[in-house]
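User: Predict SDR family oxidoreductase's structure from this.
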Amino acid sequence: MTKEHYEEVDEAVGRQQQQQQPGIERDMEPAPIFDNGTKGAGRLRGKKALITGGDSGIGRAIALAFAKEGADLAIVYLDERERKDAEETLRAVEPYGVQTYMEQLDVSREENSAPLIQRVRQQLGGLNILVNNAGKQFPQSTIADISSDQLHETFETNFFGLFYVTKAAVAEMKEGDVILNTTSITAYNGSPELMDYAATKGAITAFTRSLALNLVDRGIRVNAVAPGPIWTPLIPATFDSEKVEHHGEDTPMERRGQPAEVAGAYVFLASDEASYMTGQTIHVNGGDYTSS
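Assistant:
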């Protein structure tokens, strides 16, 4: 996939909006690019991966990139509205012959986590790679506009859910396994309209570093990826149509990124090529180096 193609798709994005989090990929125009056209090299062959928020956006791109590298996949999506997106993700990975499993589940509920990990182990035969990617965001103009309910919902999905799933997964993991967390540029730069969301991403970044130190003696690596403005269903489900149209223009590259441009960072961190990396964050943000 060429730079020119990414730029062409970016320019085609007009005004659009969705009314419910975390958004539906099949309703986006143009559709996000989740396949960069590269071939896999077997770097994850034999691995079993679980991706939360794996139905669309960055999660879908990660699923395809992992499948190309030979990993069996389990993906989790939030509710019935996203089922068709999840099914499309599994159709996209089908040509690569990997084993797949999908499940509708709310990761924010602690009681769901241990049974989920057990079902993944039963369906795939184990768990080697956990990708915590599920998330929500609700913009507000001032701190006074952030209700207690919103604060709880944002933290319960973005951080508590990540914590619960990770806690359950660690009990099943062994030396050589990997945990990857999706943080955000907002954890480093802040965001005047996404204060609670940015706070969850800051918590994820600190948790990534701390868990990495905690698990280093067990040989389990923990790293993160911090995307910048990426064209995912979360964008039209978050912002008004004018902001959607101009999303990403303030980056040094002057465009939004595509999920396919982020997925490679997860592949690298999940593979043995990153064997000397833990507690680290890769920034994929169109050149906003001040965030790192």
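The first strand starts at residue 48 and ends at 52.
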